[in-house]
Amino acid sequence: MTLYVDTSALLKRYIVERDSDVSDQLMATDPVLVTSRLTEVELRRNLTRLLDGGELLSARRQVQADLDAFALVSLDGVTCNDAARIAEQTLCRSLDALHVAAARRAGASTTLLTFDVRQAQAARSVGLTVIGT
C-alpha cells in the first residue's frame, strides 16, 4: 500500500487536536509516506497562523525533516490536468482536487489519509480508498 498524507493529517503531528493520535498511528502503518509540495505550503501557512516564537521555529524544523523523508508527487501538468478534471467532476475545492490528483498520481494502490470530509468525498467519488475520515 502507498499512503498519501494530506495536510489535514500531517498537521496533526505538530498541532495536538482531535484525532492526532489516530493520524500518527495510521502514518506508522506505511514505511514510505507520500505527499506533494502543496502540503508544505499549507502546513507552513497553518503553523504560522497557529504557533509563534520558539514553537513555530521548532515546528518548521520538524516539518522540513519530515518532508525530507516523504516521497513527493510532482504537481506537474499531468497532475494539474487531472486535478482540473476532478474539480469539474466533483465540484470540490481546487486545493482538494490537487491533493486527490496527486494521490492518484502516486499509483493505483494509493490510499489517501485525510481528515477533510469534503476532500474525502471527492476522493472516494473518483475511486480512491480513503482513511482518516
Quick description:
It contains seven helices and five strands.
Please describe what this structure looks like.
By secondary structure, this protein is α/β, with parallel strands linked by helices. It has one domain (2-132): 5'-nuclease (Rossmann fold), CATH 3.40.50.1010. It contains 7 helices and 5 strands, in the order βααβααβααβαβ. The relative contact order is 0.20.
Q: Which regions are unreliable across 5 or more consecutive residues at pLDDT < 50?
A: none
**Average pLDDT level:** 96
In total, the number of strands is 5
Strand order of the largest sheet: 3-2-1-4-5
Portion of residues within helices: 55-70%
Approximate shape: globular
Largest sheet: 5 strands, parallel
Radius of gyration: 14 Å
- Number of helical regions: 7
CATH class term: Alpha Beta
Please, what is the CATH homologous superfamily? 5'-nuclease
Q: Total domains, how many?
A: 1
Order of helices and strands: EHHEHHEHHEHE
SSE order and pairing:
Layout: E1 2-5, H1 7-10, H2 20-27, E2 33-36, H3 37-50, H4 53-69, E3 71-73, H5 77-90, H6 94-105, E4 110-114, H7 117-125, E5 129-132
Parallel strand pairs: 1-2, 1-4, 2-3, 4-5
Helix pairs in contact: 3-4, 5-6, 6-7
